[in-house]
C-alpha cells in the first residue's frame, strides 16, 4: 500500500521533472565528502520516474571514480559490472518486469560490491531513523547482507525526491539504516 502511494506520486512526474531532479541530485551528491574521497562507488541506472542518476554517474566517472553498476540475476540477486560511459550500458528486459540499463561488459560477480567505498541505493522513501523503504524485490537487502558478512563498511546513501523523506517507514529486523539521503534540495545524515 505504502509502496503504491510513493510510486503513484513518482508516476505523475513529467520527464522534465525527472531530468531536473536528476541534475539537482547530482549537484547535491557530488558535494558529499564520501563521494569526493571514494575511489569505488556502487551505483545504479535510474529507470522510469526514479530520480535520475545518469548525470551523477557521468560526473563520478569524469572524476576518475570507478563506478560499479548492478545486473539483475534470475534469483533477484545482483552481479556487478563497470560503468565506462553511456555506451557501456545495455537495455535488458527481465521477463514481464521493467527493462533495466545494465553494464554491458564483463561481470565481476556479486561480491564485487564489497570493494565499494560508497553504495548508492535506490528506494521509495527513507525515514527519520535512516530506514529505507525499497521496492520490495529484496535485491538490495541481499547486497546489504553481503556487505555485512564480508565486514565491508561502505557509506550507504539513498537517492530520493524531497517528498520521500518521511517520519517513519515500516522496518523489519534485517533492515539496516543508511548513512545519508540525498534529494534535489540537499543532504540529510543519520547518526549511527
Topology (elements, then pairings):
Layout lengths: L1 H10 L3 H16 L2 H5 L2 E3 L11 H9 L3 E7 L5 E6 L5 E5 L5 E5 L14 E4 L3 E2 L5 E2 L5 H12 L4 E5 L20 E4 L2 E4 L3
Parallel strand pairs: 1-2, 1-6, 6-9, 9-10
Antiparallel strand pairs: 2-3, 4-5, 7-8, 10-11
Helix pairs in contact: 2-4
Provide a concise account of the structure shown.
With 192 residues, the chain is α/β, with parallel strands linked by helices.
Number of strands: 11
Number of helical stretches of at least 4 residues: 5
Q: Which structural class matches the secondary elements?
A: alpha/beta
Q: Order of strands in the sheet with the most strands?
A: 3-2-1-6-9-10-11
The topology string of helices and strands comes to HHHEHEEEEEEEHEEE
Stretches where pLDDT is under 50 for at least 5 consecutive residues are none
Fraction of residues in helices?
25-40%
Mean pLDDT across all amino acids? 92
User: Rough shape?
Assistant: globular
Mind describing the biggest β-sheet?
A: 7 strands, mixed
Please report which band the strand proportion falls in: under 5%, 5-15%, 15-25%, 25-35%, 35-45% or over 45%.
15-25%
